[in-house]
Design a protein that fits this description.
Order of helices and strands: HHHEEHEHEHEEEEEEHEHEEHE
Distance between the termini: 40 Å
Structural class: alpha+beta
Strand content: 25-35%
Number of helices: 9
Shape: elongated
Largest sheet: 6 strands, mixed
Radius of gyration: 24 Å
């Protein structure tokens, strides 16, 4: 097999078309099409079914893509590390992160990284959809409480808590224990189920149960936070999102939610090596949370 043709075939297969592969790789569509045709002739099988508006992989094309794409990526990255030096982060680095974490933490982290590693072109995309690092072209994906995925590897790098907070102008209800519930006006996420209760840790180790009465619902935690700041009611929000407001006196923390800690993970495709630029980005993130629970890799 011609290796250049195989690389171009995998570009087309990974990005779902000649046009998108051409834009991302900056190679002409004609060159990509010619190399795919030559590869098909060499192997004696059709790899891609071409339609007027779209294309799809044949069974043979899908099998070839699955078995060679990750290997080619590792070969390329291994060569780059040898040529450039494993300790010298260079090139393009794309990171996908949840909207709230991206807005709260990553502008400052991104700025520090850019200043420390000027030879890396960093792009951070804030999105809440579930992305595939290979298909969507990401070197690193940050996820909150991710479900197990055999295609991804990584590490939990940060624990966070959920706090029950309110504006100082919102009266704090009497905190009953022993199973009794205290009612409070609240701002909810749209996805919060009806009848939800907030179980809050108390100083004497008993759980305090709050019965939130939703008066507003929003699709975004950022919107919930802003409404809570405006005095609409109490909110259950990540500590990362409200720490600055609590420190500045704009919000008051009533207590910590009794549920499990929020786990934030950094993940990448299991088919890729951990490159110097990814490792450097993780190190900058570690330094950005000196007062928080940073989980080092085992």
């Amino acid at each position: 097999m011609d290796m250049e043709a195989l690389v171009d075939f995998n570009l087309v297969a990974a990005h779902g078309g000649f046009g998108r592969a051409s834009r991302i790789s900056e190679r002409s569509k004609a060159t990509l099409s010619r190399h795919v045709s030559e590869l098909e002739q060499d192997l004696g099988v059709r790899l891609i079914e071409r339609g007027s508006q779209s294309l799809r992989l044949t069974d043979e094309g899908r099998a070839l893509h699955e078995r060679t794409y990750g290997l080619l990526g590792e070969i390329q990255e291994a060569g780059e590390q040898i040529v450039l030096g494993a300790s010298t982060p260079k090139g393009r680095l794309r990171v996908s992160a949840p909207v709230v974490f991206a807005h709260v933490a990553l502008p400052r982290i991104g700025a520090r990284f850019a200043l420390a590693y000027p030879e890396v072109a960093l792009e951070i995309v804030a999105e809440d959809r579930k992305v595939d690092p290979v298909e969507d072209g990401y070197d690193l994906v940050i996820r909150i409480d991710p479900s197990p995925d055999e295609r991804l590897i990584g590490r939990r790098f940060l624990n966070d808590e959920r706090l029950i907070v309110a504006s100082p102008d919102v009266p704090r209800p009497p905190l009953a224990t022993g199973g009794e519930q205290s009612h409070v006006k609240a701002v909810f996420l749209s996805a919060t189920p009806l009848g939800a209760v907030w179980r809050m840790k108390s100083d004497n180790a008993d759980e305090v149960v709050l019965k939130p009465e939703p008066i507003l619902r929003f699709s975004s935690l950022l919107m919930v936070r802003d409404a809570v700041l405006a005095g609409a009611g109490a909110g259950l929000l990540p500590k990362l999102l409200v720490t600055d407001d609590i420190d500045a006196g704009r919000l008051v923390c009533w207590g910590t939610h009794a549920g499990p800690a929020v786990e934030i993970w950094a993940l990448q495709s299991s088919r890729r090596l951990i490159g110097a630029k990814v490792r450097a980005f993780l190190e900058v993130m570690e330094k950005a949370f000196p007062a928080r629970v940073f989980v080092r890799p085992s």
